[in-house]
Amino acid sequence: KVIYHMPSVGGFNAAVGYMDAGADSDADETTTHVSYTMPLGGGSLKVNMASISTSGANATSGESDGREVGFEYSGDFGRVYALSQNTETTTVAGVSTNDQEGTTFGGQYNVNSAAKVVYYRQEMDQDGTGDTGDKFSSDTIGVRYDMAGGLRIGLLHSNYDFTDAGAA
Asked: 152 pairs with which residues across the strands?
């Protein structure tokens, strides 16, 4: 695997990668990552984009692609963030056998330098020819306390809902 990280320029970072699957497979992998961080309103805004693409292992195998786009705003108060993800596997004929789309958003509020309150929500939908209509969502809330020596203690509570569209 070969990965090139471009030197950071004014908050802009980029990387590209390539992995040869070897002589017995055509499932080569290509990756890209781009991020930009800029000061904004006493904090900083970071925007990220990443992608991964894997070719089919042979002439009759499908390929898979994944993309992730997100942002994070952080400051003295804590941080807020949102993330969108998509993973898709297609056949040689272009039929989507797996298409997962998800979003995550959340935040962290700094009560003081050691105590934090956290919340995040995740939602995921499944389409394609397999598991079509499956849905997952969850809400998580909690507290975290950073102690001396790098130790962290926390308590999280998650509530989730899963719908298996294939089950009655």
From this structure: 146
